[in-house]
Amino acid sequence: MGENFLLENEVAIKLYHQYAKDLPIIDYHCHLSPKEIYENKKFKNITEAWLYGDHYKWRAMRANGIEEKFITGAASDYEKFLAWAKTVPMSVGNPLYNWTHLELQRFFGIYDLLNEKTAPMIWEKVNQLLNQEDFTVRELIKKSGVEVVCTTDDPVDSLEYHQKLIEEGDFSVSVLPSFRPDKGLEINRDTFTPWVEKLAGASGTAISSYDEFLAALESRVDFFHQLGGRVSDHAIDTMMFAPAEKSEVEVIFEKALSGEKVSLEDEMKYKSYTLVFLGKKYASLGWAMQFHINALRNNNNRMLSELGPDTGYDCMNDDLVARPLVQLLDTLESEKALPKTILYSLNPRDNQTLSSIIGSFQGGGIRGKIQVGTAWWFNDHKDGMLDQMKALANVGLFSPFIGMLTDSRSFLSYTRHEYFRRLICQFVAGWVETGEAPHDMELLGKIVQGISYYNAKEYFQFQETLVRG
Questions:
Q1: Is residue 48 located within the same domain as residue 33?
Q2: Can you give the CATH number for the domain in which 100 is found?
Q3: Is residue 140 part of a domain?
Q4: What is the model's pLDDT at position 465?
Q5: Is the residue at 469 inside a domain?
Q6: What residues make up the domain containing 111?
Q7: Does one domain contain both 171 and 68?
Q8: Has residue 5 been placed in a domain?
Q9: Where among 135, 153, 170 does a domain terminate?
Q10: CB-hemisphere CA count at 13 Å for 462?
Q11: Do 279 and 336 reside in the same domain of the chain?
């Protein structure tokens, strides 16, 4: 993993080092904590920074035979770090192996391989650095060259830490909220009616009808917009669509609000009408709408009951995507209210499908208005990223692609952008080697720089939201 890691020819080396390497980062989707950013958290040790909440690592540790007490249990942080150090050498072939060592190199200047022998030394060295003032959360973000961070936020959140960051005004990075209304769409889950009550409290209005519910959602979108929010995000594990009249959905909503379960057809109608309503709102404000599709979550019920969700027991789903997704996008397009939209599927089988779908809805003078998002979750590795790029290049238009995001809970994960940029440079350089693209460094450099940074900057227009010191 030297300076030319993943770069296999001179064109790739030149593209990375001269065009991509030093560009800022726009992290338009992540799960970082705005509270920790505002409070400028200082980590007690590397385990807290690396292993708390990171279900990518937890899955690898379980597969390596590590007992749960050393993963999410009562073991000490040092014992958990040693368990991770034992797992890292066995993770060769998984991107975690590369990400782990990139993070050690870039943040801490450690070029030793992490294993059981080096673990005590690395533990001491990293922890000494983490106790210094230039290794706080904000400093880690700035060291990574980050320009914008979009956190993931529930509509009922107060966004108090986003507001405090604005009022404070001395952090050079824009920390913006993203609107994630999943609990308001999952009408058949036990969380639905309690969430509607929270929405009523957050919006300051009683909710006893569907009209009042929509008005409350709209008011929260406006609130997010005032604080610089320009992105929504939806976890659509199963893509569904059913045309519905508002009068039908009003009855369905009232039934759910009274605590009844609704039929699958009624659930489809409710979700479809509500998503169309939200899509129109996003379009009116110039937002981008993100759909994360085809995840099969919480597969291990025993561990769900012990540890809760988001603990590493999810997988790819294989539901059909094309027809219901096209119906939803077409409904919005027919009313000239289709917002900028980014589509992700957890199943790489859908790469070609999504790449073809977006071509049916481009337009409006917006470059790459509808996007296939970067390889997500189980796909954000070398092969997954390259497969996504190949599908997009073969079926769509590659050059407007808005590139990488972290989708992470870790403040050390920004090296994933470096990993991605190296792959982009090698991918483009490969076309030169095979004679499919000219050896025109000005053209290729512009494409690489666009995908690495400038396309996202143009697409989201975050620079027009809030100005910070």
A1: no
A2: 1.10.2020.10
A3: no
A4: 52
A5: no
A6: 42-135
A7: no
A8: no
A9: 135
A10: 24
A11: yes
pLDDT tens by residue, 80-102: 999 999 999 999 999 999 999 99
Selection from 31, 62, 51, 63 nearest residue 114 by Cα? 51
Compute the distance between CA of residue 449 and CA of residue 140 in angstroms, rounded to an integer: 23
> Cα–Cα distance between 53 and 109 in angstroms, integer?
24
Confidence of residue 464 (pLDDT cuts 50, 70, 90): low
Cβ contact 130:43 at 8 Å: yes
Does residue 337 sit in the same domain as residue 403?
yes
Instruction: Note the pLDDT tens digit of each residue in 109-124.
Output: 999 999 999 999 999 9
The pLDDT score that the predictor gives to residue 110 is 98
Give the tens place of pLDDT for each residue, 297-351. Answer: 999 999 999 999 999 999 999 999 999 999 999 999 999 999 999 999 999 999 9
Q: How far apart are CA 431 and CA 424, in angstroms?
A: 11
Strands (E), 87-151: 146-150
Residue 468 has pLDDT above 60, yes or no: no
Angle of the 264-285 helix axis to the 210-226 helix axis, nearest 10: 40
**3-class DSSP assignment, residue 399:** coil
Residues 184 and 265 reside in one and the same domain:
yes
Amino acid type, 2 = G
Quickly tell me which residue has 């993770």 as its tokens.
91
The phi, psi pair for 371, rounded to 5°, reads -120, 150
Based on the domain organization, do 454 and 343 belong to the same domain?
yes
Instruction: Say whether 427 sits in a helix, a strand or coil.
Output: helix
Q: Is residue 4 part of a domain?
A: no
pLDDT score recorded for residue 1: 87
CA distances from 188 to 65, 192, 215, 259, 272 (A): 37, 7, 21, 9, 14
Q: What is the CA radius of gyration of the chain?
A: 23
Please compute the mean of the pLDDT values over residues 373-391 and round it to a whole number: 97
In a shared domain, residues 418 and 291: yes
